[in-house]
Amino acid sequence: MLLPENISPSNSLYYNGSLVLQALKKTGEVGMLDLFAETRNLRDIQMPIFVLSLDWLFLADLVSFNDHGNIVPCF
Fold first, then answer.
1. CA separation for the pair 57, 75 (Å, rounded)
2. Which of 27, 44, 56, 70 has the least CB density, counted as fewest CB within 10 Å?
3. CB of 31 within 8 A of CB of 19?
């Protein structure tokens, strides 16, 4: 699913991670459920795919938690 060969790129974590980053860029600092709702405004994404995409962004050091427990971009 990370680098799909035989599925649509729209089902990849790269693509869905980009949607999460786009939603995070729009909101700046946000809680996880609010970020999920904002991402769903961009595409009808399911919660498991959203969480996997968010995990991917944490592993790539593109997002982190601040002292208030909100998700913030690292760039």
1. 12
2. 44
3. no
